[in-house]
Amino acid sequence: MKVNKSDKSLFDEEIVLSIMEDLKESQVEIEELNKELKRKAEASETKYKAIYDSSADAIMVLEPPTWKFTSGNLATIKMFKVKDEKEFVALGPWDVSPEKQPDGKLSSEEAKKMITKAMKEGSIFFEWTHKRINDGEFPATVLLSKMKLNGKEVLQAVVRDITIRKEAEQKIKDANKSLLEVDALKGKFLTVTSHELKTPLTPAKIQAQMLLEGDLGELNEKQHKSFDIILRNINRLDGLISDILEISKLQESGFKLTFRKTNIKKCVDSVMISLVPVAKKKGVILSYVGKGVPSVPLDKERIEGVLTNLVGNAIKFTDAGSIKVIVEKKNNDVLVRVVDTGVGISKENVKKLFKPFYQVEPMYTRKHGGTGLGLSIAAAIIKRHGGKLGIKSTLRKGSEFYFTLPIGKLGKKVVKKEVIKDG
User: Is the distance from CB of 390 to CB of 402 less than 8 angstroms?
Assistant: First the structure.
């Protein structure tokens, strides 16, 4: 089929018209898109300006190559106490900083380092000491962020005055320092007072014992009973003073434990020998459960003291039933449990149990002796061994006091002292 010249010319014209129509439509769409983008940019700019103007933080822009300020919001003007933005933009970061920062470095050099870092990393946050124009220094946090403005890379700085925070931190530091000083004085007072109280107690105790044993002549029944009460109370007072001395020592940073690799059963046996008769007198069965337990680094005297305290308390608060001392290996520890069928302890009292001088029984109803220091001393000793002392208890059903001792070299981390093998 042949197409003549006039038909071809008409066909080409229609194509051109169609293309032109398409171009017009595209142009309209582009114009609408540009308008939409312009509207969004204006909305974004309005939103940013609203945030910029209303911000409580000082917001300012720095531009290369001089890195002087080119704008600052109202908070900036107020913070640095300049007359207006025009006065502010004549300044650079070093003009609103003291000559040197608290670490002794020149503010001008440090400011340039921070600017270089922010441009390289995109943003940087740091603390800085600023100064107000003719009105002293103040601590601040600074967030420097790289951004594009009119096609140019600039830095936006957000500065927050942290004077109130720093003052609060200083007050806390001062309060902590005062507490430490008071605590140190308290420790010294307890040590000196305890020693002074213990000195006259020793001869009084010896004299009372001699009288009761008849070394100074025979006593009648009333006299014997009276001196027995005196000796019992001397012993109680002696125990209280010993507890106070012990807890004072444990609070001293220089307090050391002597570790020897020992089988815990030796400690349990020593305690059982002295406490089985006491339990038997109350009709309570005291027994040991344990087999194949490895030796651990420990201070034998101190651990025996802990066990005596825990088993002694169990006997005090168990009027019938049994007390078991259970020793077993658990993961990397030796676990020691003292389980009784006594009165138990409420959840409320369990939380306070390890506080110094705290006792479950109110002072006016207490029928058992004690200072309330035993468990806090025991907890401190176990902590020094790298272990943990805890309790599980149900009121009127019984209690389980337990502690852990790390096996092997773990004990060395607590006290830098060579572990000596014992048997």
Answer: yes
Domain containing residue 402: 260-421
Note whether 7 and 41 are same-domain residues: yes
Beta bridge mates, 340: 323
Q: What is the CA radius of gyration of the chain?
A: 41
Q: Which residue has the higher pLDDT, 129 or 5?
A: 129
Least confident of 200-204, 225-229, 355-359, 382-386: 355-359
The pLDDT tens digits of the residues spanning 60-110 come to 999 999 999 999 999 999 999 999 999 999 999 999 999 999 999 999 999
Output b/e per residue, 30-64; b: 16+ Cβ within 10 A: eeeeeeeeeeeeeeeeeeeeeebeeeebbbbbbbe
Nearest 5°: phi and psi at 339?
-110, 125
Distance in angstroms (rounded) separating the CA atoms of residues 86 and 179: 51
CA distance 55 to 293: 67
Beta-bridged to residue 120, according to DSSP, are none
Residue 166 lies in a domain: no
Q: Which of 159, 85, 92, 98 is nearest to 132 (CA)?
A: 98
pLDDT value of residue 37? 67
CATH number at residue 408: 3.30.565.10
pLDDT confidence tier of residue 13, bands split at 50, 70 and 90: low
Q: Are residues 283 and 373 in the same domain?
A: yes
C-alpha to C-alpha distances, 167 to 55, 170, 219, nearest whole angstrom:
23, 5, 71
Q: Could you give the count of Cα atoms lying within 13 Å of 363 in the half-sphere of its Cβ?
A: 3
Rounded to 5, what percent of the chain is helix, strand, coil?
A: 50, 20, 25
278 with 393, same domain?
Answer: yes
Same domain, 46 and 113: no
pLDDT level of residue 375 (50, 70, 90 thresholds): confident
